[in-house]
From TrEMBL:
This is DNA repair protein RadA. GO terms for biological process: recombinational repair. Residues 68-217 form the RecA family profile domain. It comes from Methylomarinum roseum. GO terms for cellular component: cytosol. PANTHER family: DNA REPAIR PROTEIN RADA, DNA REPAIR PROTEIN RADA-LIKE PROTEIN. Residues 353-458 are annotated as: Lon-protease-like. SUPFAM superfamilies: P-loop containing nucleoside triphosphate hydrolases, Ribosomal protein S5 domain 2-like. GO terms for molecular function: ATP binding; ATP-dependent DNA damage sensor activity; damaged DNA binding; hydrolase activity; zinc ion binding. The middle region has homology to RecA with ATPase motifs including the RadA KNRFG motif, while the C-terminus is homologous to Lon protease. Plays a role in repairing double-strand DNA breaks, probably involving stabilizing or processing branched DNA or blocked replication forks. It comes from the Bacteria. The gene is radA. InterPro entries: AAA+_ATPase, DNA_repair_RadA, P-loop_NTPase, RecA_ATP-bd, Ribosomal_Su5_D2-typ_SF, Ribsml_uS5_D2-typ_fold_subgr, Rubredoxin_2. Keywords: ATP-binding, DNA damage, DNA repair, DNA-binding, Hydrolase, Metal-binding, Nucleotide-binding, Stress response, Zinc, Zinc-finger.
Length: 458
């Protein structure tokens, strides 16, 4: 019986699919990006083992082997931190980032370090020529004797070479240009990316090979391709630059073997990406003269504290429609904090324009910065300077209470390590024992925090 050809209409920008052609993609808003793609033949197909590479068997949960997965160090401590302690054997990691972020550079550095330990590695390039990669490695000053290279885009051919060479770590640069003979669509299409990633993942699980797949990003900096790609892989990390183009931030968005949200910090230099051992110092390069609205808080990113500066600017509205702008912060949470400040703190800002910014390009996703944001707004409104040696953290509730945050003692130790002398924290986070060199003020509500703030003004 003849097999039926199945097609779909897919947006080339974001990967959204539609039952029929449309002029505009409703998902990303782009025009003339919805294309017809072939998904391959529809017929009876043998279902092989799943992504884990083994046929399913019923087993008692209590009898499952709890042995720790063996890990391979990349030689970059910050990279290992984001991966949860190193590369897990047989795992598949998707690394994304904007063009020029340094994805290929950091992976080339990593496999060069692995090769120095006499481990077999393979770098598969589907975009750059081998000469270009060799020139980059020479420019970075890497020892390349143990790095094996392959220029190929067919996943079947790649897996055949892996079978012969038997490397421990394989780099696929990039998954968007790979293709599989099982799909009739063009390389880069949604179905090709999905089938290629699926094929490589199954091979990695069956043969205990660690694979890194480089992924492209769309205009909104999200990973291109089908959402299935994120579900298939074991870990997904994104390399991005901060406001200062010299620095790069590696963030874990998904990790089956470690913490989600873990951050790694690097500095881009002529010799490649160098680890930043003390990221808090990187984000605390403050002006020589203290200014109103500038306040320091302690975030918790992954498994470690991070000191960052939050700035607030309150100015009189000139057009009768005050703006609220938050850069690096949740816009809706800023509006909520201003309402709580008005209701429970007696400070009305409805007629003022308010701008807030997290210095260094960090995106704040947790609520521990609530107290610092509120303090910065009050400081700018009253035009009073907060001392350089003061740090604030705590979540603010709708009733004006200051709620505790996780890992309070570790945050205080980080602040003391960087020379801070005073800390304003939630009452429930007050440590039982004093923190060396740190004068701690524990507050229960907004009014308590405003009273302490009045004593701190310079």
């Amino acid at each position: 019986m003849a097999k039926k050809q199945k097609t779909a209409f897919v947006c080339s920008e974001c990967g959204a699919d539609y039952p029929r052609w449309a002029g505009q993609c409703t998902a990303c808003g782009e025009w003339n990006t919805v294309k017809e793609v072939k998904l391959g033949s529809v017929g009876r197909r043998e279902h092989k083992a799943g992504y884990a590479g083994a046929h399913s068997e019923v087993q008692l949960l209590s009898e499952v082997n709890l042995a720790q997965a063996e890990r391979i160090s990349t030689g970059l401590a910050e990279f290992d931190r984001v991966l949860g302690g190193g590369i897990v054997k047989g795992s598949v990691v998707l690394i994304g980032g904007a063009p020029g972020a340094g994805k290929s550079t950091i992976l080339l550095q990593a496999i060069a370090n692995i090769a120095l330990r006499q481990a077999a590695v393979l770098y598969v390039s589907g975009e750059e020529s081998l000469q270009q990669i060799a020139e980059r490695a020479h420019r970075l000053g890497l020892k390349t004797e143990g790095i094996k290279m392959l220029a190929e885009t067919s996943v079947q051919q790649i897996c055949s070479v892996i079978e012969q060479e038997k490397p421990e770590v394989v780099i696929i640069d990039s998954i968007q240009v790979m293709y599989t003979l099982d799909s009739d669509s063009a390389p880069g299409s949604v179905s090709q990316v999905r089938e290629s990633a699926s094929y490589l993942t199954q091979y990695a699980k069956r043969h205990n090979v660690s694979i890194f797949m480089v992924g492209h990003v769309t205009k909104d900096q999200s990973l291109a391709g089908p959402m299935t790609l994120s579900h298939i892989v074991d870990a997904q990390v994104v390399l991005s630059s901060t406001d200062d183009a010299r620095f790069r931030v590696l963030r874990s968005d998904k990790n089956r073997f470690g913490s989600v949200g873990e951050l790694g910090f690097f500095a881009m230099e002529s010799s490649g990406l160098k680890e930043v051992k003390n990221p808090s110092a990187m984000f605390l390069s403050r002006a020589d003269k203290a200014a109103p609205g500038s306040v320091v808080t302690v975030l918790w990113e992954g498994t470690r504290p991070l000191l960052v500066e939050i700035q607030a600017l309150v100015t009189e509205s000139q057009y009768g429609n005050p703006r609220r702008l938050a850069v690096g912060l949740d816009q809706n949470r800023l509006a909520m904090l201003l309402a709580v400040l008005s209701r429970h703190g007696g400070i009305f800002t409805g007629n003022d324009e308010i701008y807030t910014n997290v210095v260094g390009g960090i995106k704040v996703s947790e609520t521990s910065s609530d107290l610092a944001i509120m303090v910065g707004v009050v400081s700018s409104l009253k035009d009073r300077v907060i001392p350089y040696d003061a740090v604030f953290f705590g979540e603010v509730g709708l009733n004006g209470e200051i709620r505790p945050v996780a890992n309070g003692h570790a945050r205080l130790n980080e602040a003391a390590k960087h020379g801070f002398k005073r800390a304003v924290i939630p009452k429930a986070n007050k440590p039982k024992h004093a923190v060396s060199g740190l004068d701690i003020s524990a507050v229960a509500n907004i009014q308590d925090a405003l009273d302490v703030l009045a004593d701190l003004y310079q």
